[in-house]
Amino acid sequence: MKEAVFEPQWYCDPHYAELERKNVFEKLWLAAGFTSAVKNNGDYFVLMIHGQRVLVHRLGKEIVAYVDACPHRGGVIATAEMGNTRPVCKYHGWAFRDGRGLTGVPMGSQFESDDAMRDRSCGRSLKPLAVHCVGPLIFVNLADNPLPFEEQFNDELIDVFGRMGETSTMIQLSFKGDFNWKLNAENVRDSLHPLFVHTESFSSVLPDVTDAYNQDRIVRLQQTEQQDYARYDPSVPALRDLSYIWRTYLDEGSYWYDSMVQRSLPHDCFLNMLLFPNTNLYSVGGRYYAMQQYLPTSATTFDYRLSIAMPQMLQRFDAQGLLTSIARSERYVIDEDSVILRRVQQNLTAMAQRRFRFTQGDYETPIMQFMRYMGGAVYQEPPTCQA
Ligand code: FES
Ligand SMILES: [Fe+2]
């Protein structure tokens, strides 16, 4: 056991959400989605990042990203959450050919009465954002000078991204989360909770995990005097160590579409890519890929985005029904977590005002790493003692 690394106010106080906006969401690479969401010229989807409307848009061969705010009076290029459109503002028609600089103003003389100035953009443009595509994944970065992608993700991860190949058809759902986004990011790094929270839903497909549970005996404790546990290593972990791969043996049998898709990742494993800060990406036997994104909207709410994508098809088939049923079962598992996490949120909010001692287990090292980074690098607070 260890003395807890986290402070409950990290999960409910807007002060910390603001530091996260500055030092995480507007600084680091964020997984935006799968390339198959923007297959054709003009396809786009929106990603809301701390209130900023970010558009990921395919223009010709290129996938670009920009803040969807027109430099005229704040109009938008896209009025929906996803669709197909030209890079033209929907309020008064200003055009931004490559999703960057202003290239056309309809009824230009209404805007500029000086002939000499009429054909000049004077540097007006959308705010372009850095994009990095690898395998079927699109990443965006909101910083002016983004850090190198390799500084955030290790070689093994980047290699697996590449090996995922292309994605074909996909489905995307969004719903509201009514707790702090970090509870989800930490929960997916919590290797023990599936045994308790997802007992039914996981037992048949993850036999190794269930076996470990059945063999590990309950330790009966004697009640002893209050005593401090050791503290977790207080140094701030390297950013690159916060994202990693976790493999679990998977036994799902075979499915009717197995021979119709290019299964380029292992067939007998649930391959989980935990991507700091806010993404959980996984391959289920190479059969399908899922991406969960936790996008904060306040200190205590977030948008949950779930995307399921099929790998490249060897033989074309209509996968809509299949994707819907996969999404439904994924959603069921997500709801199992949310029942608990909502209560955890209530407790952390209550305890932020009071003195209460939390404790963490040795198995929680990846979660404690996550928390130490938040505490040290994001909030820049020295580790404190809560007693
Ligand atoms: S707000 Fe975009 S053209 Fe007017
Ligand atoms: Fe879970």
TrEMBL record:
Superkingdom per UniProt: Bacteria
PROSITE patterns tied to this protein: RIESKE, RING_HYDROXYL_ALPHA
Keywords of the record: 2Fe-2S, Iron, Iron-sulfur, Metal-binding, NAD, Oxidoreductase
GO molecular function per UniProt: 2 iron, 2 sulfur cluster binding; iron ion binding; oxidoreductase activity
Cofactor(s) this protein requires: Fe cation
InterPro entries the record matches: ARHD_Rieske_2Fe_2S, Rieske_2Fe-2S, Rieske_2Fe-2S_sf, Ring_hydroxy_dOase_asu_C_dom, Rng_hydr_dOase-A
Cited Pfam families: Rieske, Ring_hydroxyl_A
Domain (Rieske): residue spans on this chain: 29-140
Assigned protein family: Belongs to the bacterial ring-hydroxylating dioxygenase alpha subunit family.
Name used for this protein in its record: Ring-hydroxylating oxygenase subunit alpha
